[in-house]
Amino acid sequence: MKELFRRFSPYFKDYKLAFGIAIIGMILASAGNAGVAYMIEPIMNKIFLEKNESLLYLVPIGIIIAYTAKSIGKYVQVYFTSYIGQDIVRRIKDKILGNTLDFDIT
């Protein structure tokens, strides 16, 4: 396993910024998931049990914000991880093609 990481580490070094952005997307998606789960308790306790109607107007806005953050984070994460993977595969294919074209014909 160590040999595998050593062999492919030069390909990953060029994508530090993309990895960072993908991690930010993961954090944003996780925060959106946690936000939705965190809002369930106030919805149940304050709106349904205490009959607080003022929160009835704020909860949909909070849900929309949480799901928007979750969706944006998930999109950023998937986009950048796919970009990294596909670009590494492209670079390896180009290297293999270059080596193949440099072979002697005879």
Automatic annotation (TrEMBL):
This is Phospholipid-lipopolysaccharide ABC transporter. It comes from uncultured Campylobacterales bacterium. The keyword Flavoprotein does not apply. One of its GO terms (cellular component) is plasma membrane. One of its GO terms (molecular function) is ABC-type transporter activity. The chain crosses the membrane at residues 21-40, 55-73. It is a multi-pass membrane protein. It comes from the Bacteria. The keyword Membrane applies.
